[in-house]
Amino acid sequence: MIMLTKEQITELKNKGNGDLAYLVNKHQDSGNLAFILDNLGHLPKNFNGDFLINLLKHEHYLVRLSAVKNIGKIHQEKYLFLLMEAFENEVNTIVRREIISSIGRMRNPKNKNFLFKILEDHDPKVVCQAIRALLVFEKENEIVEKLKPLLNHQNETVRNFIYKEFFANQENKDSTSLPHTETYDFLKNVVVNGDVLEVLKYVPNESVHLTFTSPPYYNARDYSIYPSYQDYLEFLEQVFVETHRITKEGRFLVVNTSPIIIPRVSRSHSSKRYPIPFDLHGYLVKNGWEFIDDIVWLKPEYSVKNRIGGFMQHRKPLGYKPNSVTEYLMVYRKETTKLIDWNMKSYDSQIIKESKVEDGYETTNVWKIDPKFDKIHSAVFPVELCKRVIQYYSFKGDLVFDPFAGSGTVGKTAKSLGRKFFLTEKESTYFEYMKSKAKPNSSMFGEPETQFFWTMEEFVNHVLP
Ligand SMILES: C[S@@+](CC[C@H](N)C(=O)[O-])C[C@H]1O[C@@H](n2cnc3c(N)ncnc32)[C@H](O)[C@@H]1O
User: Which of 49, 123, 263, 297 shows a CA-CA span of 20 to 30 A to 419?
Assistant: First the structure.
């Protein structure tokens, strides 16, 4: 094992590379070689990299990888052809990707035909590297013709790459849509008593900044009865398709669900568990919601139904039923080619400053929060849960939407955090409950600002006066 420092390697390189080549040839063990090669740094244009050529055939892939990276730094045509040749023989995925990336960095128009061929490679990452390399050149017809068909490529990353490059800026933006940070006054601090799907027919595209909701639990509670689980999922699909339409570009949807249990009909049947978050997920991504995170809401064991009791007695395998102390908060973003940075930059510096999340925020995806029990509604959000979601996923002044408002915790918390809210709730009992909390001196919604609409007609007259 030789002991060389980074400085010594730089010195050898600057002396002319005879010494370096000698050193490399002498030490063919992979550890030393990789160390020398990784520390070569910038290479001058006239650098003689011939000693690297043999290393393209080294048995250890890390040595081959470092050799490729260094050859890529030397912008000489003979090395371009050597890399092309090395690609034909390379079997390691990482090295294959690096070869195409290095070829791209050479920016030599002679690589075009080779790269066209690589567009058919089986590794989507390699295809993306080839696309990047081709996009270095002007978008000349020949290149456009070869790239556009990849819009139908079987891999989603390749498709998105091409879409962003060629079509994203041509999208027909609705010329009437509002600036990103703004929304319609007729939606601000509004609660509607109605079926969410009916109400949303009157809500314009791109008007809400964040949706946080907990949908009905299939047929587990009395307020929601669906003919079948499939009908239930399709109903939620429609709600989230509409939510997608009214959501601003690149903004978030946070859905709180958990697997539920429908009790057995009789002793000769078993109860059935429905994995709602997992079944719903497919419907969301299919409809343009990009999956971002799964947050687990952890509740204390004493607060949940005891399922383990039977097992505690009999201890027989297969009869194990753990107490379910978690729910999910699945986080999605309205698919866009724009980065989150674009969303952030839409706000002025004052709003950004005022919306900064203070110390004490949660650093993991497991949120330990006690549930809330309520006499009126059986599934009320704890305020702490709403606070976190609203603070982490919206800015001050944003419009927060809850299609299944229940007792209105999302609205109340949004208001207290300087956001606006828009709520829909089908059951008049819960609607009335929200209204009752909005009496003048009450802090819940703080009249007179909140507007309650008892009927669809009232709401429609408000939207379309
Ligand atoms: C799980 S609860 C939400 C509770 C709420 N997160 C809270 O903090 O009180 C679901 C609510 O959705 C309502 N709901 C069910 N179907 C609806 C529909 N089609 N339109 C509007 N609300 C509906 C139910 O009446 C119920 O209050």
Answer: 297
